[in-house]
Amino acid sequence: MRIKELKHTDSDNFFLLAGPCVIEGEDMALRIAEKVVDITDRLRIPYVFKGSYRKANRSRLDSFMGIGDEKALKILKKVSDTFNVPTVTDIHSPEEAVMAAEYVDVLQIPAFLCRQTDLLVAAAKTGKIVNIKKGQFLSPMAMQFAADKVVEAGNENVMITERGTTFGYQDLVVDYRGIPQMQTFGFPVILDVTHSLQQPNQSSGVTGGMPQLIETVAKAGIAVGADGLFIETHENPSVAKSDGANMLQLDLLEDLLTKLVRIRQAIKA
């Protein structure tokens, strides 16, 4: 599987999907992309810029959803054109698959929609790479059927992302056995580090998180052989409009990735 404009594919590093949870504006997206591109170029990490053009799954009606679909998608395209990197964004309906495919390189299926057949088929038919997030309610082996829907619709460009499993009402856990199990399907497997540390269903209606464990979860993911990592990052998570409680502060990213590259080199030695 090849992602257009993906650099450093000969480095034998893990690849990285990283960026803000949601596109809050053009300047913010370009600043974050510039910083991450600089870091990943120096560390030779294949990099895909991530940003949701709209957040459909929110706890409360008054939660921020986006700056406008077309406006945000055009910003994603500008990031790609400016820094020569591929981009990934979430989609939520078959109609969105067609629309988003005009602007981005990878279409991401949210975890809570991973069983939606019409959505998976529509994403497949765009010809784009389809990254399916494992539902918090599914076993790793059950994701074979989600991947099969995309393949049977004529598209073998599939990635699968682990993002934690529901553990009670307000917590998630990562079963690291799921990474090698899902790799047996023959597709790249990604660990979503930051969403695995969410604490959903808080009484305030605002999702919590444990960002202090980002390094721990990421190190474990690389140690067990994850093909890629997904990390949401923001210049100032405390003022982020979505998922600020579990995002990584941008100025901490380089140190984390440097450590992870060393772990990758050690297990490949």
From TrEMBL:
Stated name of the protein: 3-deoxy-8-phosphooctulonate synthase
EC number in record: 2.5.1.55
DAHP synthetase I/KDSA domain sequence ranges: 10-267
Pfam family, one: DAHP_synth_1
Cross-referenced InterPro entries: Aldolase_TIM, DAHP1/KDSA, KDO8P_synthase
Pathway(s) it belongs to: Bacterial outer membrane biogenesis; lipopolysaccharide biosynthesis; Carbohydrate biosynthesis; 3-deoxy-D-manno-octulosonate biosynthesis; 3-deoxy-D-manno-octulosonate from D-ribulose 5-phosphate: step 2/3
GO molecular function per UniProt: 3-deoxy-8-phosphooctulonate synthase activity
A Gene Ontology BP annotation from the UniProt entry: lipopolysaccharide biosynthetic process
Domain of life of the source: Bacteria
Principal location listed in the UniProt entry: cytoplasm
Catalyzed reactions per annotation: D-arabinose 5-phosphate + phosphoenolpyruvate + H2O = 3-deoxy-alpha-D-manno-2-octulosonate-8-phosphate + phosphate
Species name: Bacteroides graminisolvens DSM 19988 = JCM 15093
Sequence similarity: Belongs to the KdsA family.
Localization per record: Cytoplasm
Any one GO CC term of the record: cytoplasm
UniProt keywords, alphabetically: Cytoplasm, Transferase
